[in-house]
Amino acid sequence: MTDELRVASWNIEKNGRGRNGTGDHRSLARKIVRSFRPHIYYRQELTGAWANGKADLYDEAREIGGLMPFMTQPREGRSLNPVGVMIDPDEFEMLRQYEHDLPWKPICHLTVRPKGSDTQLHLASAHLCHFDPDMRATEARRLTTLADHGHRVIIGMDGNSYPHQRALETVALPDWTQVQDRVHYQHRTVPGPNGERVSDTRPHEILTGNGIYVDLGLHASTVLGQPGALAPTASLKRLDQGPPQRIDWILSTPDIAQGLIRFEVVATEDVKRVSDHPLLIAVFDLATVCEPAPR
Q1: 4-172+201-289: what CATH class?
Q2: Mean pLDDT of the chain
């Protein structure tokens, strides 16, 4: 067993195949992730990975370092960019797998146990709906149920919306009068108190506003003194949707957050070649994560 628990989360644009099938960056993406040796790896946009007996999913897991992969099933007429979770079989016993079916994109949810421990961890990968703020709120509420009954949870996700504790953030919300993509404006805003449309921060508030989950980037910045943890995460490429925002998050229940050692937003030139989102890395003290819950 290791002393650290290394967690990665990454929305790899079109699964590294490039938009409209142009370019193939899968090998580079796997090399980047392998260098961080994650024990848990949350994936968003596993485009095409279900096909051919999930061959691409298994190739990725093997090339990263022999991880055990799971993913949700894409459904015609809905999102064809499913999510998944990969775990290190040397570190975890697999207990249960769930797929929370939602109108646009299911949530991938595993229950695992670190070897040598009695603690169960609930792991979920989510990619909230890109076009419907109300659906995002529903998806966020569904994620809150994972923490019921005192469960310990770690979530890796693309929130497609914005953090709600604005005074603590280092990047201002979009000035929607300057955003050229008016469809994006409709997708990412909700009616405000005075009738104007404002940036959608509801999912983040639902998840973290009353202490169900801790935003680990925010925790690293405010508690551990790591301001780089609040770096923006999307889009690294498009200029017509306003400046990059912190829409990708790793969240955990407060008991697990106590074990956080560091949090990184990895946006190297290689990462930018692969995706329009950075790679997120969270490193924990494993003993704290596995500490028995108080009775």
Answers
A1: alpha beta
A2: 95
